[in-house]
């Protein structure tokens, strides 16, 4: 699966548009969750080499994914939370899309988890005020 095919999938699956920046002399394309503004996929192709897609994953699973699917640590994002997927055919199309979907879901769920914590905190605060 190549980068353009993944971009087409993203456009159909998620309501996001890419931002492109130049880093280390080559373009880096970033897709962000529209609700949280957090990135969930980063694409780059360093100097005539393989294109990579960086995605977010559960920190305790990064090492497993790298070992099982021959992935690499992230280059542009935090290696504790991100991994790099080569788009050279060495990873199956279905696994590439699974990793992309997982990353989107993790980023999309961050706001909900943060919101629940804040909502719980607000409810506790208002309850204390009502008792006083």
Question: Oligomeric status of the shown chains?
Answer: single chain
Give the radius of gyration: 18 Å
* SS field, number of helical segments: 3
**How much beta, percentage-wise?**
15-25%
What would your notes on this structure say?
With 132 residues, this protein is an alpha+beta fold. 44% of the residues lie in helices and 23% in strands. A 6-stranded antiparallel beta sheet has the order 1-2-3-4-6-5, with helices on one face. β2 (26-32) and β3 (39-44) form a beta hairpin.
Could you give the topology of this structure?
Elements: H1 3-13, E1 19-23, E2 26-32, E3 39-44, E4 52-56, H2 62-69, E5 72-73, E6 82-86, H3 93-131
Antiparallel strand pairs: 1-2, 2-3, 3-4, 4-6, 5-6
Quick summary:
The chain has helices at 3-13, 62-69, 93-131, and strands at residues 19-23, 26-32, 39-44, 52-56, 72-73, 82-86. With 132 residues, it is α+β, with helices and mostly antiparallel strands.
Q: Which key phrases capture this entry?
A:
alpha+beta, 6-stranded antiparallel beta sheet, 132 residues
């Amino acid at each position: 699966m190549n980068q353009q095919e993944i971009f087409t999938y993203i456009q159909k699956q998620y309501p996001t548009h890419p931002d492109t920046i130049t880093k280390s002399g080559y373009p880096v394309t970033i897709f962000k969750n529209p609700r949280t503004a957090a990135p969930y996929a980063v694409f780059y192709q360093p100097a005539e080499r393989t294109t990579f897609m960086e995605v977010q994953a559960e920190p305790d699973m990064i090492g497993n994914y790298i070992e099982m699917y021959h992935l690499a640590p992230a280059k542009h994002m935090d290696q504790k939370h991100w991994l790099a997927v080569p788009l050279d055919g060495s990873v199956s199309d279905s696994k590439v899309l699974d990793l992309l979907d997982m990353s989107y879901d993790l980023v999309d769920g961050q706001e909900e988890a943060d919101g629940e914590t804040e909502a719980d905190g607000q409810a506790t605060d208002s309850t204390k005020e009502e008792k006083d």
